[in-house]
Design brief:
The chain is α/β, with parallel strands linked by helices and about 575 residues long. Helix content is about 25%, strand content about 25%. It contains 16 helices and 27 strands. Helix 5 runs antiparallel to helix 10. The protein is globular, with a radius of gyration of 26 Å. The N and C termini lie far apart (about 65 Å).
Length: about 575
């Protein structure tokens, strides 16, 4: 990172010294004799989530264009490299390349995605929270290669590992205090060193199953970045890029290259980062933005391979400092030729997957989306597809475990369902995590606490059709330490099957094992008792689609406000 004041002082001293000997440059030819800066291009993506094929529905468009699909992504990357100097181009990613993936990738433990991105020329990637979905040992296998310990090499060929380097600066082995993987990498371009620090969000343990993060400790993002930035500078690195799987959100009026009303964790993190850090390639929120925060270029390329961020750096050849940094989010449009190698990879895995993916499991009368309705000015309302999933989970456990209600977390609903026949692959894309259903006992008082915790975490639990309650937009929000003190949920309004919930009574409720373990910040659920683990959530969803077809989008009337239901 350059320090303008120091450089100006140095230049001034040089000029004085030269003047004393009558050797000051006085014409353009002499002035231009200093070395030209090194041009470096970074091509960045994030939150690919195994979307080898173009995503469907709204997930497959951005900026008004159909976008995504690794066949097109690889072509766009090649074209962008050709437009720049290929030897000066570095391709990077900010986490969640795998996990929450469509069936074509997930059925093979995301090996196809790693192969595809390696073939597309990826150089470095930070880990994201989903890189930990199957645990640290599996992440190391993904990096280093080898057959899966349970499923073997499912496609019949050896898995060679990633052709790029995962970086993980803030995930430490609890037993030793050492980083799980390399915290940073140094890449030389025409003699200039560029340092890359890779990290996931500190809150990864809150949004990944406990098995996934067992034996690991996660550190503060800014503190970690500053620590390794100092180490890089001691090694002569002045151009420092952070690949961070954490992000923010800009206002709805902002376009893919705007930074309007930026909010979210990335703002505070960037503000606490050392001035020596020049660029932050971010992710996690699935947003697109192009910002200057605290003198740093901060970018994000949305999700699912629909954008590539083209970042141009000019680096002083002598000092190694960044002279300028500019970015442009480029749409991965589908009006270019498909990369034939990527097509061959997709076809090979499709053949191995066989007819399972195309098996019809149900039908919908209309498109059923995961979009949340607006509740008192925020997107904290119900979701048509989220409600259907909650209904499916209740149907799988009402007779079997005596459940009277079910709740689904919004982050577990990954795609929309189109109108018409629903295939197993489409159902899998909606629910790819293979979470088990857990039915547990909660008192009425605990249930009110769980619902109040929604407003602390900023996440709505989608309720089954048996659930109804009223929210007061003027109520108070609890605290992280004690969400139960909140008054957003009107007391006495919570009903199961039309009957008011008694705070002193006990009720059987179904959630997935992620929520049962306190995932997404719902720590109140860990107070449940008499836990019984049931079937995989996807199996429950598929069974419901089959039994209830054709399925329609439910009316969104399970959560109402005091404006709709005046106080008695």
């Amino acid at each position: 990172m350059s320090i303008p004041g120091m450089r100006r002082a140095a230049v001034g001293l040089t000029a004085l010294a030269l003047a004393a000997f009558g050797a000051v440059a006085t014409n353009p030819e002499q002035a231009d004799a200093r070395p030209k800066p090194v041009d470096v291009t970074l091509l960045a993506l994030n939150d690919f989530h195994g979307n080898l094929e173009p995503p469907s529905g709204s997930s497959g468009t951005i900026a008004g264009q159909a976008a995504g699909g690794v066949e097109y992504l690889a072509t766009h990357l090649a074209e962008l490299r050709a437009a720049a100097k290929k030897k000066n181009t570095i391709t990077v990613a900010a986490g969640d390349l795998i996990g929450a993936s469509p069936l074509l990738s997930a059925a093979f433990h995301d090996e196809p995605t790693i192969e595809a991105l390696s073939m597309a020329g990826l150089d470095y990637a930070s880990v994201g929270n989903h890189e930990f979905d199957e645990g640290a040992a599996e992440l190391l296998r993904i990096q280093n290669g080898g057959c899966h310990p349970v499923d073997g090499c499912a496609d019949g060929t050896p898995y060679k590992g990633a052709g790029f380097q995962y970086l993980s600066a803030n995930a430490f082995k609890t037993a030793t205090g050492k980083p799980l993987m390399a915290p940073y990498a140094i890449h030389k371009v025409q003699g200039v060193k560029v340092g890359f620090i890779g990290m996931t969000l500190e809150g990864t343990p809150e949004i990944v199953s406990q098995q996934g993060v067992a034996g690991l400790t996660f550190a503060d993002e800014a503190v970690t970045a500053n620590r390794y930035a100092r180490e890089l500078r001691r090694k002569g690195v002045e151009t420092i890029v952070v690949l961070l799987h954490e992000g923010g959100t800009q206002a709805a009026t902002g376009g893919i290259n705007d930074c309007v009303g930026m909010t979210g964790p990335i703002v505070d993190i960037a503000n606490r980062m050392d001035p020596s850090i020049d660029v932050v390639v971010s992710g996690h929120t699935h947003q697109a933005y192009n910002c200057d925060i605290n003198g740093k270029l901060v970018t994000s390329a949305s999700s699912f391979g629909r954008l590539v961020t083209d970042i141009d750096l000019k680096i002083d050849r002598r000092s190694g400092d960044v002279l300028s940094a500019a970015a442009n989010n480029v749409v991965v449009s589908r009006d270019v030729a498909k990369d034939p190698k990527q097509t061959a990879l997709i076809d090979r895995y499709k053949t191995v997957l066989g007819p399972v993916a195309d098996r019809q499991v149900g039908e919908t009368t209309q498109a059923i989306t995961r979009a949340q309705e607006t509740l008192f000015g925020t997107t904290m309302g119900e979701s048509p597809l989220g409600n259907v999933i909650a209904d499916a989970q209740l149907a799988a456990t009402d007779d079997e475990q005596g459940a009277v209600a079910a709740f689904m977390n919004p982050g577990g609903v990954r795609a929309d369902l189109d109108a018409g026949p629903v295939t197993y692959e489409e159902a899998f894309t909606v629910q790819p995590f293979a979470n088990n259903l857990v039915t547990l006992d909660l008192t009425g008082a605990q249930l009110y606490c769980v619902l109040e915790q929604q407003f602390v975490t900023g996440r709505t639990l989608y309720p089954s059709a048996t659930v109804g309650y009223v929210v007061d937009p003027n109520g108070t929000t609890g605290t992280a330490a004690d969400p139960c003190v909140g008054t957003r949920v009107v007391r006495g309004s919570l009903t199961f099957g039309g009957t008011a919930v008694d705070t002193a009574a006990t009720y059987r409720v179904t959630v997935n094992n992620f929520l049962a373990g306190g995932g997404d910040g719902f720590s109140a659920l860990t107070g449940g008792t008499n836990l019984v683990t049931g079937q995989i959530d996807l199996d429950a969803f598929v069974a419901y689609l089959t039994a209830q077809s054709p399925v329609s989008a439910p009316t969104l009337d399970r959560i109402r406000t005091t404006a709709e239901v005046p106080a008695a």
